[in-house]
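Narrative of activities, Objective 1.

The group set out to show that a structural description can be obtained from nothing but a protein's sequence at a throughput compatible with the screening campaign. Below is one input-output pair from the validation batch, recorded exactly as produced.
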Amino acid sequence: MAQQAPQLTSSSPSSTLYIGLMSGTSMDGVDGILVDLGNALPRVLKHTHLPFQDSLKQDLIQLNDSGKTEHELEKAALTANTLSQLYAQCVEQLTDDPSSIKAIGCHGQTIRHRPEKGFTVQLVNGALLAELTGINTICDFRSRDIAAGGQGAPLVPIVHQAWFSDKNKHRIILNLGGIANLTSLHPHQSVLGFDCGPANLLLDGWIYRSTGKSFDSAGAWARGGQINTQLLNRLLKHPFLSLPPPKSTGRESFNISWLLNIEGVNQIKAQDVQATLTEFSALCIIESVTVLKSDLPLEIVCGGGGALNLFLLERIANHLQDIPIITTEKLGMDIHQVEAAAFAWLAYAFDQGLAGNVTSVTGAKHPAILGALYPA
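Output recorded for this entry:
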């Protein structure tokens, strides 16, 4: 029997205001959201974004590169403190009444994701965040699912199921962050979800290396390049792409060092590499979408920062032909708000004693309550 989405209304008369904090694989900054979860659908009260300073971003990237950081444990602890201070600033922008907030759900910043070895690391000092904000803080959401034999990711499909399902459509919710992941919502099938491969991760890394820009605005630079078929075919040989779900990935598998080790990449015009990487991201997504069978009208709903990359969306649409592609804004939620709101809900689920994972997505042996509490 398919695991059903939990009821998303509170059984308690206490506060239903939660803050969700999300910083993803793109490492571009923190998204914070204040939501009222007292009804079946979330009511967004406030949203803010704080960018990472370049020094913090570079520290995080170095920590993600195993074996190449001196004094890694100390650096990780100090970086977690710096990151937690930024999270606290984000919370301060969201509310001037900490006592009204039931809890913070903070994803933390992933620096190592190795479910095949039984662990995942999201940097955050939960105790410090609780101390700085005066609000109960719940974090470390992925470890419990991994302990139960799951991938620990993606975790947002349980919220996609509750918020975006349509009884007359097969919807695929496509999150275009550093990594692309999807949630398959068919009204008569179990929820499926898994990572597809890179979305923005390589695109942002390559344009920064080539031009100093942090991202390719609307995909304009890639649009002016030419797809190099030889490089594309080499990229498509990455072993992750042939793995069956459940599966998840990150910077450990897809990074600039991996790209630079591919034969011939340094002989290709930088702008052409960007165009090729955009096509690579699109094809990783296409391959994931086309294996999903559907007997209902199919609709793709995009969220995350990559939904602003118009060239990437065009390449996806080019391969999918007649399948409608919309953004989460059409369903009532800004593209930047969905994941932060989802971790607010995961904090709520912890409070309510609800399972936060979907076993058909992560591969865990059983549903589990996710997270660890740091009381204020």
